[in-house]
Amino acid sequence: MSERLITSLTNDTIKAVRALHMRKEREATGRFLAEGLKFIGEALDQGRAPVMLLVGQDARSHPLLDRAKAETKKAGGQIIVVTHAILEKISRRDNPQTVLGVFEQVYTPLDAIRPDAKPCWVALEQVRDPGNLGTIIRTADSAGCGGVILIGDCVDPFSVEAVRATMGSVFAVTISKTTREEFLAWRASWPGSVIGTRLDATHGYRDSPVRHPALILMGNEQAGLTDDLAAACDVNVKIPMRGRADSLNLAVATGIMVYAVTDAAYGSSL
């Protein structure tokens, strides 16, 4: 498939790519937008070629760009050369990346998850902030977790903001989404510890023994974990607040929990 040049902002293909900023369009197409050659490289390393590769006219020659073009062509995707103005409109930035990719979304059904594949998994209930979600996906990847399960009405992990915050880990981490009812039924067969986090918990986050694989449940940024999910946990724990602040950012708290659990499994080098 040869490369084609598009210079018009009103081109139908460009309008379709720009529309991926809207959740309803992402859900309708099953696609999402990733920006930058680093992101494209992370995707290729995971066997995920873009269905559409948009390359700026002024993009510099690079071995990774050559690879991206070759793998996009091999997978039957489109390669489109665009102007700087189009890149600005698509990315909504004055200084846009010179390479953008459109990818297929991948969700893993709950019943396809193999808990023993990794020592730690994360479940998030009604997380609302895309930056938090993206950072948690990146942290889960860094710590060696198996994946992130989204419970209830969560922010879209494939929004542009969430994808940016993953720094490419969106391609490496299993992502699943489910209802509260489905999750509770599925959780009953979890083979290891299920650990909830609550400010009113009596156990510290390092005080309880953990059976791996562990499943860490984190609640909404404002309301925390609901009573139904807290009751489904083997233990609920808290992170001590020793200063004036009475809570932590969700992504920070999740990172603390994830490393506490994975260090016990992998062993800490610190």
TrEMBL record:
Any one Gene Ontology molecular-function term assigned to this protein's record: methyltransferase activity
Pfam families: MRM3-like_sub_bind, SpoU_methylase
InterPro entries to which the protein is assigned, alphabetical: Alpha/beta_knot_MTases (IPR029028), MRM3-like_sub_bind (IPR053888), Ribosomal_eL30-like_sf (IPR029064), rRNA_Methyltransferase (IPR051259), SpoU_MeTrfase (IPR001537), SpoU_subst-bd (IPR013123), tRNA_m1G_MTases_N (IPR029026)
Superkingdom per UniProt: Bacteria
SUPFAM superfamilies the UniProt entry points to: alpha/beta knot, L30e-like
Entry keywords, A to Z: Methyltransferase, Transferase
Keyword Protease among record annotations: no
Gene Ontology biological-process entries: methylation
Domain RNA 2-O ribose methyltransferase substrate binding as annotated: residue spans: 33-109
Family indicated by similarity: Belongs to the class IV-like SAM-binding methyltransferase superfamily. RNA methyltransferase TrmH family.
Protein name: RNA methyltransferase
